[in-house]
Design goal:
alpha+beta, Nucleotidyltransferase, domain 5, Actin, Chain A, domain 4, 3 domains, five-stranded mixed β-sheet, 40% helix, 26% strand
Length: 344
């Protein structure tokens, strides 16, 4: 019998900086929520997780803390992560009767053994009986439908909230990889700073995220778009409305976008010639929420002279990849970090 019982309700988890997604073997993605937890500082109890907790960010009294426990793809607040995972798995377990499941969790490429152990221990604490780890670029490639175990090159650019991971994959392993701590969150920071500097207006992260999703672009749009936003005037302290355009937001995030482009180019430069030839034919696949930034695929294609494709449902690629590992474990067992270490 394989590592996972055929009838078990094993789970795959994308423990992201911004969102947490869960898939159950045979059921697909069953949960997608913001990776936010709100706790009572006096009692230590969870008050809310997910969407409810996200609405509390920046609005809580001193006795309540609403945080995103993941930072740059790794655990920043160990206690909050354990509580968040426990609450998330409890929801899934109650709905799908998957008590004490085995779990495959996506983690950033190149995380330390200490960080790996923190993910394993948090998932066990949350109720899993066994935990297996798979690198996010690998999980994203599998979730995007790439045949990672074949002896030909595939290039994945996974743009999350905390990190952008660029990897060339062949024969079930990552051949060349670069990880950049610039992604969706950095775009939000860029937008906040730009509006503060250019308009003397203070806005929060929720507003910045809305602007990014509505107007964010890597190169000029066919038709310039605009939206009205509200913030606090830094001179008067009073609320004020302004109208901003997609061209302004492109300018705001320009430097961060160019760093992502340079990281992709750097990865291509390090790729062995045989695999580089495969990539010219197959192109680059974009996954993660950042893949939805307008015209990013077009800009990358222009800069690399290669075809660039956005995966279907890019935000779900990592979690779908963990689900495929669950379903085809014997074939995909080599991609598990824990398995490689045990074998070595």
């Amino acid at each position: 019998m394989g590592l996972f019982n055929l009838n078990s309700k094993d789970v795959g988890i994308d423990l992201g900086t911004s969102n947490i997604l869960v898939t159950i073997k045979g059921k697909g993605v069953v949960l997608k929520e913001p990776a936010v937890v709100a706790t009572d500082l006096k009692t230590g109890k969870i008050l809310a997780t997910g969407f409810e907790a996200k609405e509390m960010i920046g609005r809580t009294p001193e006795t309540i803390k609403a945080v995103r426990p993941m930072n740059d793809g790794v655990i920043a607040d160990y206690t909050a992560t354990r509580l968040l995972l426990k609450n998330i798995l409890k929801k899934v377990n109650q709905k799908y009767n998957s008590r004490r499941p085995r779990a495959v969790v996506g983690v950033p490429y190149g995380i330390t053994e200490v960080e790996e152990r923190a993910v394993e221990e948090s998932t066990i604490f949350a109720g899993a009986r066994e935990v297996y780890l798979v690198e996010e670029p690998m999980a994203a490639a599998i979730g995007a439908g790439l045949h990672v175990e074949e002896p030909s090159g595939n290039m994945i650019v996974d743009l999350g909230a905390g990190t952008t991971e660029v990897a060339v994959i062949s024969l079930g392993g990552i051949v060349v990889s670069n990880s950049l701590r610039i992604a969706g969150d950095e775009f939000d920071e860029d937008i906040i700073n730009y509006i503060k500097k250019e308009h003397s207006l203070s806005i929060g992260y929720t507003t910045a995220e809305e602007i990014k999703m509505e107007l964010g672009c890597a190169s000029p749009l066919m038709t310039q778009e605009s939206m009205e936003i509200r913030g606090r005037d830094l001179n008067t302290g009073l609320p004020r409305n302004i109208t901003i355009t997609s061209t302004q937001i492109m300018e705001a995030i320009k430097e961060s976008v160019s760093k992502i482009v340079e990281t992709v180019k750097l990865t291509l430069e390090k790729t062995p010639p045989e695999l580089a030839a495969d990539l010219v034919e197959k192109g680059i696949v974009l996954t993660g929420g950042g893949a939805l930034l307008k015209n990013l695929d077009k800009l990358l294609s222009e800069e690399t002279n290669m075809p660039v494709y956005i995966a279907d449902e890019p935000l779900e690629c990592v979690v779908r990849g963990t689900g495929k590992v669950l379903e085809e474990l014997e074939r995909l067992k080599p991609v598990l970090i824990n398995n490689r270490k045990r074998r070595g």
